[in-house]
Specification:
Blueprint: H1 3-56, H2 62-69, E1 74-80, E2 85-90, E3 109-115, E4 118-128, E5 134-142, H3 144-196, H4 211-262, H5 266-294, E6 305-308, H6 309-324, E7 328-331, E8 338-341, H7 343-359, E9 365-371, E10 376-382, H8 404-410, H9 416-427, E11 429-436, E12 440-447
Parallel strand pairs: 7-9
Antiparallel strand pairs: 1-2, 1-5, 3-4, 4-5, 6-8, 9-10, 10-12, 11-12
Helix pairs in contact: 1-3, 3-4, 4-5, 6-7, 7-9
The protein binds adenosine-5'-triphosphate and magnesium ion.
């Protein structure tokens, strides 16, 4: 069943149930009251008549006496203790009552009876006959007027219930439309997306910022995010495959050269092997960086603990100096500077910046470790070629290189800084890159307290 039909059905059914219960309650209460008041009147009448009849019996013939007190729509009867009708008088309209078998009741009786499918009030009172015998004076009156009132009420209530259901049906249909409209348009958009494979947004209508509007808005945000992620991914894959194409082409051409003439010419052999080897290393580094970038922050398994930044920087620079045979000047107060971080990841971060400083400058690199009052700071500065102001925001993008030709010669793939940014984000380190073309670059790492 469709959601709209469900809303329609459930609201209407619930409302109908409530109406039926309330109206049923009204009907039962009212019919009880009506019949009750008729019975009370009949009882009072009985008392009055029985007193007069008891007095007049013996003076006036029974038949005449009873005829004087016969109810408008009913019967008056004298019944002997054996249950025999001694005298009976019925009104014109209730002649059939006379055929009803009489019963004797020892005590005063007042009850509702049914005879030939109709309701009657039955009253019985013991009286003493002039002969000294006990008998019953019984008056049976139709309850048809009460039944008619109750019946009319029933019909009115039934119509009222049905009439009340019309606006309920209309409002539940409207409610269904209000709720279903945006959902249907969302479903249409989703199936459009599935069919065409293209990202689409829902057209949002209405000024009331209700939950449905919010749902549509959230959906649009989600689609926006998916689209931008999808674009980034696409860009990343095309960049990555483009980057891998060059080393593979170089390896391909050198290996075929080796195959053709490598055996005869040792110079070609050496050059080819050298080129293949260096390209293989480049590819290895590139894939390692790509793998790291593909990992999500949560998969990094950080081990955060208090680290003395001074000793970490000292050991890192020593390793760096040995590996690249270059000089690094270290400036620090000598006092231990503790920050909570992951030692290995921080080392990796330092190497990325040291590597850039080495590649893009010739003069010695300076590392300063200190405290700017609130946060611990490590600054790596070089006096190299620097980065143009326009390029500064872009250097953290994946595969971005300021001067493609120059970086290619230095073996860079443009992934270092984007990896650095990811690591810094994971460690909660704020990065600040400052640079001036021709005079150098400095990167500062701010550690959160
Ligand atoms: P990779 O680090 O992946 O081997 P890369 O060094 O080219 O390659 P990034 O470290 O991301 O890539 O740097 C991006 C670009 O920013 C570099 O290509 C370079 O042009 C510029 N750059 C980065 N650091 C410096 C620096 N210290 N001085 C001058 N230019 C820099
Ligand atoms: Mg780099």
């Amino acid at each position: 069943m469709k959601l709209r039909s469900k809303i329609n059905l459930y609201t209407t059914a619930l409302f109908a149930l409530v109406l039926i219960i309330v109206n049923g309650f009204i009907y039962i209460t009212f019919s009880k009251l009506t019949y009750g008041s008729h019975m009370e009147t009949a009882e009072a009448e009985m008392k009055k008549v029985s007193a007069v009849v008891a007095q007049s019996l013996g003076n006036i013939p029974e038949a005449v006496l009873l005829r004087a007190y016969v109810p408008v729509n009913g019967m008056i009867q004298l019944v002997s203790t054996e249950g025999k009708g001694l005298a009976t008088t019925t009104s014109q309209s209730e002649k059939k009552l006379a055929e009803r078998t009489p019963h004797y009741f020892a005590g005063e009786t007042s009850k509702r009876i049914e005879y030939l499918g109709r309701d009657y009030s039955f009253q019985s009172m013991p009286i003493i006959l002039p002969s000294g015998n006990v008998a019953n004076l019984q008056i049976t009156t139709t309850l048809e007027p009460a039944a008619k009132i109750v019946q009319t009420l029933g019909v009115v209530l039934l119509f009222a219930t049905l009439a009340a259901l019309i606006p309920v049906l209309a409002s539940s249909a409207l409610l269904g439309k209000i709720i279903i409209g945006p959902v249907t348009s969302m479903i249409t958009t989703m199936s459009d997306i599935r069919r065409s494979g293209q990202f689409k947004q829902i057209a949002l209508e209405g000024k009331s910022k209700d939950e449905l509007y919010q749902m549509g808005e959230t959906f649009n945000h989600m689609i926006e995010l998916l689209e931008s992620n999808f674009d980034k991914q696409k860009q990343f894959i095309s960049n990555a495959s483009h980057e891998l194409k060059t080393p593979i082409t170089i390896i391909d051409s050198y290996s075929s050269l080796l195959k053709r003439r490598g055996m005869q010419n040792p110079k070609i052999f050496e050059e080819s092997v050298e080129a293949i080897h260096s390209e293989a290393i480049r590819m290895k580094e590139l894939t390692e960086q790509l793998l790291l970038l593909a990992k999500h922050n949560e998969q990094w398994n950080l081990r955060i603990e208090p680290v003395n930044l001074i000793s970490l920087v000292i050991s890192s620079t020593k390793a760096f100096e040995n590996a690249f045979n270059s000089e690094v000047i270290l400036e620090h107060s000598g006092e231990p500077l503790i920050a909570k971080t992951d030692e290995l990841k921080l080392k990796q971060l330092l190497f990325i910046f040291l590597d850039n400083a080495r590649k893009y400058s010739d003069a010695p690199i300076t590392i300063t470790v200190g405290n700017d009052g609130r946060e611990a700071v490590i600054t790596i500065a070089d006096k190299g070629i620097g980065i143009d102001e326009d390029e500064l925001p872009k250097v953290f993008d994946r595969f971005y290189r300021v001067d493609k030709a120059r970086s290619r010669k230095n073996g860079g793939s443009g992934l270092g800084l984007s990896l650095a940014k990811e690591i810094a984000d994971a460690l909660g380190i704020r990065l600040r890159l400052e640079s001036k073309v021709g005079s150098g670059t400095s990167v500062s790492l701010y550690f959160k307290k």
